């Protein structure tokens, strides 16, 4: 049944960084240019320190005919006010950062924030990375001459792994990484007296092919396999990983997020939105939502743009960010009957508006073969399309209410839908 409304909108944004930075210096008698190309790859924010962590790839240009230099990967701390560079760590040669996250380690009454990085080491003749590392950094504050706060990165602990660290997240105070086909769980331990840290591996589970997405939620992990599956894992009380359910359809997920302990939302490389619900009895994930978003969603973040009123039937649950620069919100419809009635409304509107049938076809999911699948979209409703009801003419409203047959007649008064859609507009 339809569980979500999808609403798209554009939001004025200040770019955190461009895809390339050009630095130039000029002298009095001659002009000299130096180009340094820096490509931001991953970003994370630590609110307790008010700083961003930015993983970058830098490639310096060379003269024509000169062999290209290998790109160098680095990790930077940026001030969250003016984005000034506070500290920087340069990776080893032929090492690239693939993923970043933060971890807060609590001991007694004290909390310490760490930045966790996954890397791989590339060798020219290798087709698949054979080695990588898990790096954990602490950021120590220090006072500068201007009395402003600054930070210095310090490598607290590291662990070598056999393969590429494709993904990283935290769960139950531990670090989970995806290394090739395996999910590995690490515990960061700190000595209270010396403040020295070390990483201890506590569990490993082979999932499938390439674990490219990991999301932690309470004691559970959502795993996205680039080739085959979406899986839901649980971290048991003895810190072991076990599989709760899987969907083995070749969906090629790009990004994932847990709505709660049983529900998952995902986006794949054919621009579809998907949702899954855990079937505990059969130990599988049932796909209950399939919808063509027509944009590459690369990140889901729990939250909303505007908080709903108390008692509202529409609850914003996720923000999503697309490669086109678009930001959208996923809104949950808790009332099952309301979701069914809105589905009827969207069907009748599609039969009345001139472009309605094209809209239905446009939202039909795409398969991995880059063709439309046979089934129509389900589990999601298009908030943009539904809000057109607010500007429909009286003649169109009458046709929408009646439908094309008696079973299609709307079961709710039209003014109730209009009021609900006005509430929807207030949420973005």
From TrEMBL:
GO terms for cellular component: nucleus. One of its GO terms (molecular function) is nucleic acid binding. Residues 72-389 form the RSE1/DDB1/CPSF1 C-terminal domain. InterPro entries: RSE1/DDB1/CFT1, RSE1/DDB1/CPSF1_C, WD40/YVTN_repeat-like_dom_sf. PANTHER family: DNA REPAIR/RNA PROCESSING CPSF FAMILY (PTHR10644). This is CPSF-A domain-containing protein.
């Amino acid at each position: 049944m339809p569980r979500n409304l999808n609403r798209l909108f554009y939001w004025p944004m200040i770019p955190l960084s461009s895809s390339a930075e050009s630095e130039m210096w000029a002298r009095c008698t001659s002009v000299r240019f130096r180009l340094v190309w820096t490509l931001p790859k991953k970003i994370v924010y630590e609110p307790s320190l008010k700083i961003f962590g930015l993983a970058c790839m830098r490639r310096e240009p060379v003269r024509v005919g000169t062999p290209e230099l290998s790109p160098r990967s680095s990790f930077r701390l940026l001030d969250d006010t003016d984005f000034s560079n506070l500290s920087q760590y340069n990776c080893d040669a032929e090492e690239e950062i693939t993923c970043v996250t933060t971890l807060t380690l609590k001991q007694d009454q004290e909390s310490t924030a760490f930045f966790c990085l996954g890397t791989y080491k590339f060798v020219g003749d290798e087709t698949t990375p054979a080695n990588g590392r898990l790096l954990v950094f602490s950021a120590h504050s220090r006072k500068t001459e201007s009395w402003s706060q600054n930070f210095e990165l310090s490598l607290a602990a590291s662990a070598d792994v056999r393969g590429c660290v494709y993904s990283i997240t935290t769960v139950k105070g531990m670090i989970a990484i995806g290394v090739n086909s395996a999910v590995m769980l690490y515990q960061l331990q700190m000595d209270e007296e010396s403040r020295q840290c070390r990483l201890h591996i506590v569990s490993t589970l082979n999932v499938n092919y390439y674990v490219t997405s990991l999301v932690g939620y309470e004691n559970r992990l959502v795993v996205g396999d680039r080739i085959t599956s979406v899986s839901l894992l649980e971290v048991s009380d003895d810190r072991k990983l076990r599989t709760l359910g899987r969907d083995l359809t070749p969906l090629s997920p790009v990004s994932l997020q847990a709505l709660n302990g049983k529900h998952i939302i995902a986006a794949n490389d054919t621009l579809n939105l998907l949702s899954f619900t855990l079937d505990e009895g059969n130990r599988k994930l049932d796909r209950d939502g399939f919808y063509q978003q027509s944009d590459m969603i690369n990140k889901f973040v729990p939250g909303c743009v505007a908080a709903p009123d108390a008692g509202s039937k529409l609850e914003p649950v996720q923000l999503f960010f697309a490669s086109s620069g678009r930001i959208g919100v996923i809104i949950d419809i808790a009332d099952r009957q309301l979701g069914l009635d809105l589905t009827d409304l969207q069907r009748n509107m599609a039969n009345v508006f001139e472009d309605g049938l094209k809209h239905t076809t446009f939202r039909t999911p795409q398969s991995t073969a880059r063709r439309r699948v046979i089934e129509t979209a389900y589990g999601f409703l298009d908030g943009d399309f539904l809000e057109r009801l607010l500007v429909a003419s009286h003649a169109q409203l009458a046709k929408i209410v009646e439908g094309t047959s008696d079973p299609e007649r709307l079961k709710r008064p039209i003014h109730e839908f209009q009021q609900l859609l006005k509430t929807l507009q207030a949420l973005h």
